[in-house]
Task: inverse folding
């Protein structure tokens, strides 16, 4: 399954029942207090110990997502995620997931633009088994030739279900390609273009594995009921024995100077509402004016983050739209986007809705945001971070996601503190730098 993992999505992970720490304690201490070290083969190891329940989350992240798909082979990172379950040197095809299930655990994997990750949630005494099997898969999957075409069919069917049968997914795919270009890493779908999925060979996959799946391009994160001494012992018995390999470092394409298409309109018989979308190229924590990343997150919340936001008041409460929102994700390798969306409420015209949105955007550019708005947004955005401390899946997703971007672990450990430090002046500077950007596309998905 493809899925984008961010701090915001990780913070929504299920929580254990222990009460959250106080606000003051969270400011003084790192979120997870994780221990981390690097093995001789280059693998980074992270432990976020949490002894409140006898369970562990075991994750391996590779710094290879769909953004690393070679030209003409979009979808290979995601296809390979599927094939990694088709056996390795000492674990027959299908045996990995059966073993996890037999032990009462859960396992899965996901591919985003920046990473591919494999994980298991199990009772803590089963951690050694998980590490043996995952290290075996890291050392060398089989990409079973007898199952290659059958799994291609599974991926194609997944594309039909999650993209081609969904009007909004079809539109978003066309929108991204129109803005960035169909072969740009931001313009290609994570799951891949259909004709290119059909073109991927087993030899292509073996080459992609050799180029991207080295231990030194991976991060192991264990969270839960495990001590550092025990994890070091298990790591030495498993992952430390995987041979070191060279890998091709991530290199994202430069962004175009202007969008391929500044406006995109699509009509779809399965669509019942007119949906507006606007995307503007923006810096991220790893690219461009990175100092704007945290202020842009606050800006997204002020402009379109829920019922207290400016767009909600100007559009939804005014009767122009059914929904309205804005968002930004600074956790990516390369350029990011600042997005605005709304669903039109009849009998409002498209022109009236779009004009109202542009007025709100221009008002922020001209007049800025207030200290009170920034204080409210910082408080609401960081509340989830405090509650996330006990989530069994939150720590590995946050820590692994940050480290595979090449950012220091402090980016994850002290994210709430950095967000609380954002000022109205910084938000206004970021807004004026990004919102008028030339690389932007406006789209409408309309009923037929």
Result:
């Amino acid at each position: 399954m493809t899925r984008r993992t961010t701090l915001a999505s990780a913070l929504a992970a299920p929580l254990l029942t222990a009460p959250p720490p106080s606000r003051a304690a969270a400011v003084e201490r790192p979120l997870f207090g994780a221990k981390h070290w690097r093995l001789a083969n280059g693998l980074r190891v992270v432990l976020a110990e949490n002894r409140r329940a006898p369970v562990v989350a075991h994750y391996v992240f590779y710094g290879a997502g769909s953004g690393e798909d070679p030209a003409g082979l979009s979808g290979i990172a995601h296809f390979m995620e599927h094939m990694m379950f088709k056996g390795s040197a000492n674990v027959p095809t299908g045996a990995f997931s059966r073993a996890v299930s037999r032990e009462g655990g859960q396992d899965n994997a996901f591919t985003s633009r920046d990473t591919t990750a494999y994980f298991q949630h199990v009772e803590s005494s089963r951690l050694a088994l998980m590490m043996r099997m995952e290290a075996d898969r890291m050392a060398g999957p089989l990409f079973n030739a007898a199952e290659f075409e059958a799994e291609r069919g599974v991926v194609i069917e997944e594309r039909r279900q999650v993209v081609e049968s969904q009007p909004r997914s079809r539109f978003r795919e066309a929108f991204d390609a129109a803005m960035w270009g169909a072969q740009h890493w931001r313009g290609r779908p994570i799951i891949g273009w259909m004709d290119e999925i059909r073109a991927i060979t087993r030899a292509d996959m073996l080459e992609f594995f050799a180029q991207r799946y080295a231990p030194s391009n991976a991060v192991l994160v264990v969270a839960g009921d495990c001590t550092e001494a025990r994890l070091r012992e298990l790591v030495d018995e498993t992952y430390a024995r995987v041979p070191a390999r060279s890998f091709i470092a991530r290199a994202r394409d430069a962004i175009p100077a202007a969008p391929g298409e500044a406006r995109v309109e699509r009509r779809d018989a399965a669509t019942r509402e007119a949906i507006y979308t606007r995307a503007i190229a923006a810096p991220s924590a790893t690219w461009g004016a990175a100092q704007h990343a945290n202020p842009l997150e606050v800006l997204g919340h002020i402009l379109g983050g829920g019922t207290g936001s400016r767009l909600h008041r100007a559009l939804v409460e005014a009767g122009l739209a059914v929904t309205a929102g804005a968002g930004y994700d600074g956790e990516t390798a390369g350029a990011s986007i600042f997005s605005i969306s709304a669903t039109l409420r009849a009998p409002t015209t498209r022109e009236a809705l779009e004009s109202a949105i542009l007025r709100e955007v221009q008002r922020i550019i001209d007049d800025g945001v207030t200290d009170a708005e920034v204080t409210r947004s910082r408080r609401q955005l960081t509340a989830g971070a405090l509650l996330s401390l006990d989530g069994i899946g939150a720590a590995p997703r946050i820590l692994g996601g940050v480290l595979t971007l090449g950012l220091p672990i402090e980016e994850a450990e002290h994210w709430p503190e950095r967000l609380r430090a954002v000022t109205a002046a910084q938000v206004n500077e970021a807004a004026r730098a990004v919102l008028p950007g030339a690389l932007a596309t406006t789209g409408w998905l309309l009923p037929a």
Q: What stands out?
A: The chain has 18 helices and eleven strands. The chain has two domains: 7-241, 263-447. Residues 1-27 have pLDDT under 50 and may be disordered.
